């Protein structure tokens, strides 16, 4: 309200976001003036802009709140934003071959992805229910558009509409919860909500009901059971590069938001939300494991796999301890690499000039393209949680944090669900190496995707040699929430 | 005071009556027009309690955009509204039940049916304790561009995404559409556009 609101120090905290917004606007202008021929340039430039934004997060690194406490940056938000930016940049680079093949390679795609990433950064940095909502809406609206991006395909359009309608319902629930919280606490600012709860000035029952609505809205965005119904249909219907993007960046952003909401304003209500998060975690792990067992379509399979993985992350959130949050960051970083690598292979599934997406289409890959099959095998074993691959360490961290917080039964159920889920991951390996096929897929059309697959396989396979840096980053990020 | 009470009852009665007409009316165009009437009366009710900003928003957003959009849909698309209304009587009981539940909730909340929750109500009204010394448009204007400047800017970006999305998903470049390009017309060389033919007398072309 005073003059310092417009001061430069506020802008400098949001410098990465500002850079991304301006870069996207300029590229949009360039694309509009040049037309379709500019698409490849715009997509590469957008990826570079996203990477520069990630660098700006750390050089120089700043902490604090800005814009009348609506915006906050600390170690946790910075780490999460870096993960989101890297996965968006790689998702854009991986999408070119597919969209060119589908004759839908238009310059708006990378720009809408970039705007959605901007929304993710804003929601990660939210420090008020209002900035939370606008960030979330910016992200979601862009996601609805790219789900329907292949507009001549009925399935893509259907995915877009389904996602839009169900997403609006979730936003409505979130807003209703926010209005209840405002009513019962007298403020929308995270700090003041938590103060009102601690001082006993807020009506606790009303606030708890509001919080449950907000958590339900966020659970929809991360596709946790029982708010997961849209996930398999949208993942299957959306163009595959969009599915790859959906499976990584928005999940990381929404989970980070969930962590900062639960550990920030609603920390005094820990006993209330812990049961909700534990229930969602156990149900997600279980449903993600069992529903995918007989799934022939690999995109649907990855949808269920992402539901199960969200369950593991929620287990770390439910612990509510510093170790729990550390395990969340650790798991999400590994999850990002594994999923981008897997989707890089899925995006290469082309036979006789038609993109295919059934698991059986991978048959014979072990003989025709041994390196690609090897990277896919490493990724699948890692997702199944087989030591010494990276995925194993992620799950181990989460389960250890849960056990330390005395969540014994959820941890045991999580291990059992992980055993069940390993069946369908290993089945893909079996299909690649032991099933006969008349004609293997021909993945020679995109060097970019093969490079992403190989690099992520290397990272996942060699992770055990040097796990300390990631673990240290995760620990530093979690410390931000526990001053 | 009396004048205000008369105005309230007139606006409220027209609002409820036109709301009923929206559902009952046979012609869908009349339904939409009654909907607009209901919005106008609701806006008048908001003015009566001193919330002129919401009143204006109601008129601009609901009447200006939503209702006109409805009218377009009804008139442009071939929707058989009488067929849509066929299940009306089947759904009447459940609709009435939901309405009764909402009414009961309001009455409970006002304490008419007993069981006032003093604590809850006081916590609920805590947010609005600051007395308004300025009218509410001015009050919103004071914080919108200062305290909530950030939210305002992000809302602008959301609108940009909506615009890009609408264009991406609907704009099609159809082949074979003839558009006038004046510069092309002006730059046409003489050789392309004019053919001089020597026509013999009585010969025809």
What does the secondary structure layout of this molecule look like, with pairings?
The complex is a heterodimer of chains A (483) and B (205).
Chain A: H1 8-13, H2 15-34, H3 39-58, E1 64-66, E2 71-73, H4 75-101, H5 108-124, H6 129-147, H7 154-185, H8 190-198, H9 204-222, H10 230-237, H11 240-263, H12 270-290, H13 298-319, H14 322-346, E3 350-351, E4 354-355, H15 365-368, H16 370-384, H17 390-404, H18 408-434, H19 447-462, H20 468-479
Antiparallel strand pairs in A: 1-2, 3-4
Helix pairs in contact in A: 2-3, 2-5, 3-4, 3-5, 4-5, 4-11, 4-14, 4-20, 5-6, 5-11, 6-7, 6-11, 7-9, 7-10, 9-11, 9-12, 10-11, 10-13, 11-13, 11-14, 12-13, 12-18, 13-14, 13-17, 13-18, 14-16, 14-17, 14-19, 14-20, 16-18, 16-19, 17-18
Chain B: H1 2-24, H2 28-48, H3 52-76, H4 81-84, H5 88-110, H6 118-125, H7 136-144, H8 149-170, H9 182-186, H10 190-193
What does it look like?
The complex is a heterodimer of chains A (483) and B (205). Chain A is mainly alpha-helical. Chain A has a domain of 214 residues. Chain A contains 20 helices and four strands. In chain A, strands 1-2 form a two-stranded antiparallel sheet. A two-stranded antiparallel sheet of chain A has the order 3-4. In chain A, a hairpin with a 4-residue loop joins strand 1 and strand 2. The longest helix of chain A is centred in the middle third of the chain and has 32 residues. The N terminus of chain A is likely disordered. Chain B is an all-alpha fold and 205 residues long. Among the domains of chain B are: 79 residues, NADH-ubiquinone/plastoquinone oxidoreductase chain 6, subunit NuoJ (Four Helix Bundle (Hemerythrin (Met), subunit A)); 31 residues; 33 residues, no CATH class. Chain B is built from ten helices and no strands. In chain B, helix 2 packs antiparallel against helix 3. Chain B is elongated, with a radius of gyration of 30 Å. The N and C termini of chain B lie far apart (91 Å). In chain B, 11% of the residues are buried. The mean pLDDT of chain B is 82. Chains A and B meet through helix 5, helix 6 and helix 7 of A and helix 6 and helix 8 of B.
């Amino acid at each position: 309200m005073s003059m310092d609101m417009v001061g430069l120090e506020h802008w400098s905290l949001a410098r990465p976001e500002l850079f991304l917004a301006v870069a996207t606007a300029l590229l949009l202008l360039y694309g509009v003036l040049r037309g379709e021929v500019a698409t490849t340039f715009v997509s590469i430039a957008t990826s570079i802009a996203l990477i520069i934004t990630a660098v700006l997060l750390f050089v120089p690194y700043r902490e604090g709140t800005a814009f009348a406490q609506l915006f906050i940056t600390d170690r946790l938000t910075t780490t999460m934003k870096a993960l989101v930016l890297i996965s968006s940049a790689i998702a854009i680079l991986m999408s070119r071959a597919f969209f060119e093949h589908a004759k839908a390679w238009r310059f708006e795609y990378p720009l809408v992805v970039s705007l959605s990433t901007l929304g993710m950064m804003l929601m990660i940095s939210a420090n008020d229910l209002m900035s939370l909502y606008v960030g979330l809406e910016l992200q979601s609206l862009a996601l609805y558009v790219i789900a329907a991006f292949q507009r001549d395909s009925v399935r893509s359009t259907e995915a877009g509409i389904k996602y839009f309608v169900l997403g609006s319902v979730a936003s409505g629930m979130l807003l209703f919860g926010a209005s209840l919280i405002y009513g019962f606490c007298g403020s929308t600012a995270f700090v003041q909500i938590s103060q009102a709860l601690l001082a006993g000035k807020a009506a606790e029952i009303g606030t708890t009901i509001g919080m449950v609505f907000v958590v339900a809205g966020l659970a929809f965005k991360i596709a946790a059971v029982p708010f997961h119904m849209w996930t398999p249909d949208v993942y299957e219907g959306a163009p595959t590069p969009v599915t790859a993007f959906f499976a990584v960046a928005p999940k990381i952003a929404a989970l980070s938001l969930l962590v900062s909401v639960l550990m920030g304003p609603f920390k005094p209500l820990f006993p209330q939300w812990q049961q909700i998060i534990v229930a969602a975690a156990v149900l997600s792990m279980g449903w993600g494991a069992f529903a995918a067992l007989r799934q022939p379509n690999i995109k649907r399979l990855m949808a269920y796999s992402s539901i199960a993985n969200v369950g593991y992350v929620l287990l770390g959130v439910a612990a509510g301890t510093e170790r729990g949050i550390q395990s969340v960051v650790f798991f999400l970083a590994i999850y990002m690499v594994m999923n981008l690598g897997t989707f890089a292979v899925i995006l290469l599934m082309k036979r006789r000039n038609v993109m295919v997406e059934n698991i059986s289409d991978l048959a014979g890959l072990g003989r025709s393209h041994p390196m690609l099959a090897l990277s896919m095998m490493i990724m699948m074993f890692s997702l199944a949680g087989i030591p010494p691959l990276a995925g194993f360490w992620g799950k181990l961290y989460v389960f250890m944090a849960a056990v330390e917080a005395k969540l014994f039964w959820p941890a045991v159920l999580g291990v059992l669900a992980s055993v069940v889920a390993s069946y369908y991951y290993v089945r893909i390996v079996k299909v690649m190496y032991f099933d006969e096929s008349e004609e293997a897929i021909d993945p020679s059309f995109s060097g970019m995707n093969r490079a992403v697959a190989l690099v992520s396989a290397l990272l996942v396979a060699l992770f055990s040699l040097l796990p300390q840096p990631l673990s240290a980053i995760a620990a530093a990020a979690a410390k931000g929430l526990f001053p | 005071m009396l004048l205000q009470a008369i105005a309230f009852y007139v606006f409220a009665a027209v609002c409820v009556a036109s709301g009923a007409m929206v559902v009952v009316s046979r012609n869908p165009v009349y339904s939409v027009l009654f909907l607009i009437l209901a919005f106008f009366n609701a806006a008048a009710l908001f003015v009566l309690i001193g919330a002129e900003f919401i009143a204006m928003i109601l008129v601009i957003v609901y009447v200006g955009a939503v209702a006109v959009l409805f009218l377009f849909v009804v008139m442009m698309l071939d929707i058989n509204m009488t067929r849509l209304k066929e299940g009306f009587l089947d759904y009447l009981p459940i609709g009435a039940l939901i309405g009764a539940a909402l009414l009961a909730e309001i009455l409970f909340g006002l304490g008419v049916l007993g069981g006032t929750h003093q604590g809850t109500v006081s916590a609920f009204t805590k947010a609005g304790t600051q007395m308004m010394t300025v009218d509410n448009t001015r009050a919103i204007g004071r914080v919108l561009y200062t305290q909530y400047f950030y939210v305002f800017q992000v809302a602008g970006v959301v609108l940009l995404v909506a615009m890009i999305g609408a264009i991406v998903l609907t704009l099609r470049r159809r082949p074979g559409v003839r558009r006038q390009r004046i510069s092309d017309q002006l730059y046409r060389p003489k050789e392309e556009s004019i053919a001089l033919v020597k026509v013999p007398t009585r010969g025809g072309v």
